[in-house]
């Protein structure tokens, strides 16, 4: 029983480890691998909360751990990635500007954690997970995107994270409908593009992808059985 309640935290720790590996890949010049690892982190992040609810293993520890993992994988890692691929040409100034992204992201996470007004229908400000994922995708296709666009998007995401704009949430979208279909389609498309143009995937993808497919299959079968019962 104790192990079962720890399973969601393992997904969260996997997300955190993806962030660490992404920073390492970026520091050694493997920018595509670094971007892919952030996307894998998004995949794991989308699973830990639902797995916790599925196993009835939600806890205050899990929520705090999730926030810590998010600031590394979707805050620090993308900022390093953008610096090494776009802002490095500005020297120290570029490094300082890149460091603003995790600052805005951390503030956004803290504000969310202490907020007493929460809704399943929308987020207040762009979630750091989405912001970090967008930067990762921009980097993944960096050869096709001018640096000025990356800079504008980077700046816009910083302010959108701490804004009061209401961003529609997909939490209420039932699996395996739109959210899962889009995730699988995007994953397959990135796999084909990456294998064709950029070489080898990080080995972690071969662990995370089957795990995610098994999770989606389980959710689909469980949902279908519920409908049959009803």
From TrEMBL:
User: Keyword annotations for this protein?
Assistant: Lipid biosynthesis, Lipid metabolism, Membrane, Phospholipid biosynthesis, Phospholipid metabolism, Transferase, Transmembrane, Transmembrane helix
Q: Catalytic activity, per the record? A: a CDP-1,2-diacyl-sn-glycerol + L-serine = a 1,2-diacyl-sn-glycero-3-phospho-L-serine + CMP + H(+)
| Localisation | Endomembrane system
One GO MF annotation is: CDP-diacylglycerol-serine O-phosphatidyltransferase activity
What parts of the sequence cross the membrane?
90-110, 122-142, 148-166, 178-197, 203-221
InterPro entries from the entry? CDP-alcohol_PTase-I (IPR050324), CDP-diaglyc--ser_O-PTrfase (IPR004533), CDP-OH_P_trans (IPR000462), CDP-OH_PTrfase_TM_dom (IPR043130), CDP_ALCOHOL_P_TRANSF_CS (IPR048254)
User: EC number(s) on record?
Assistant: 2.7.8.8
Protein's membrane topology: Multi-pass membrane protein
Q: What class of enzyme is it?
A: transferase
Q: Which domain of life does this protein belong to?
A: Bacteria
Principal place where this protein is found? Answer: membrane
Q: Family membership, please give it.
A: Belongs to the CDP-alcohol phosphatidyltransferase class-I family.
User: What protein does this entry describe?
Assistant: CDP-diacylglycerol--serine O-phosphatidyltransferase
The source organism is: Alkalihalobacterium chitinilyticum
């Amino acid at each position: 029983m104790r192990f079962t309640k720890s399973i969601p935290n393992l997904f969260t720790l996997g997300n955190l480890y993806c962030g660490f590996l992404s920073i390492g890949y970026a520091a050694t010049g493997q920018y595509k691998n670094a971007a892919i690892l952030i996307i894998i982190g998004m995949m794991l992040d989308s699973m830990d909360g639902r797995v916790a609810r599925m196993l009835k293993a939600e806890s205050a520890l899990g929520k705090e751990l999730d926030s810590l993992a998010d600031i590394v994988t979707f805050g620090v890692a993308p900022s390093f990635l953008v610096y090494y691929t776009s802002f490095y040409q500005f020297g120290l100034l570029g490094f300082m500007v890149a460091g603003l992204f995790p600052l805005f992201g951390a503030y956004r996470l803290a504000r969310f954690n202490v907020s007493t007004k929460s809704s399943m229908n929308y987020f207040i400000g762009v979630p750091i997970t989405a912001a970090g994922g967008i930067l990762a995708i921009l980097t993944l296709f960096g050869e096709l995107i001018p640096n000025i666009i990356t800079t504008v998007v980077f700046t816009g995401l910083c302010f959108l994270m701490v804004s009061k704009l209401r961003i529609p949430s997909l939490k209420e979208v039932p699996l395996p409908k739109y959210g899962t279909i889009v995730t699988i389609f995007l994953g397959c498309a990135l796999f084909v593009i990456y294998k064709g143009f950029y070489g080898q995937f990080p080995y972690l993808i071969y662990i995370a992808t089957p795990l995610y497919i098994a999770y989606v299959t389980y959710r689909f079968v469980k949902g279908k059985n519920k409908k049959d019962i009803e």
